[in-house]
Model the fold of this input.
Amino acid sequence: MRGDTPDTEFARRVAAGDHPAFAQLMRRHNRLLYRTARAILKDDAEAEDALQEAYLLAFRAIANFRGDARLSTWLVRIVANEALGRLRKRARATQVTYMNEFASDEPERAARRAEMLRLLESEIDRLPDAFRTVFVLRALEEMSVEETAAALNIPEATVRSRYFRAKRLVRAALASEIDAAFNDAFAFDGARCDRIVAAVMAKLELQEA
Done:
């Protein structure tokens, strides 16, 4: 399936039981959806688990997708609901593990970059819950105000105010260095992408067996 395949065509094929199309859909949206779950849960492993469960929910419900919103927005809403449900059930915070790989960089530059990313992720994690999710979708994933509001089911004015306040808080902590680190925050490497796709497809095959 080509990279420019419309959302409605993706949805139609997945609803018809096309597993390769579903795997491609996951790869297309994995980073956005992982970052959404990670912003809410603040835990790498739990974010992966939440994303896998959300994908299974989406697979079962995708026949109901009518194209009124973008497929990515529809998926973000499912992932956010799954992550928020887990957050409500979690009795205490779990320790966050950071894994940043910069093998291709020079040692000194890699060390500085890794430290900058650690500080960036740490400051984002310190944001209030409501601000953090909006910040990740707007600043890291560059979703529009309209898309973010639709995904989180909140007014556009709320998105704007939360994003402004979150950005001001993070910038105050990291000063001018923050802009250079946006693209690499919460890195979504090939191994994580492959692991999520493989896990979801294995669960799907078990469910359909």
In short: Residues 3 and 28 are 8 Å apart (CA to CA). The first helix runs from residue 7 to 15.
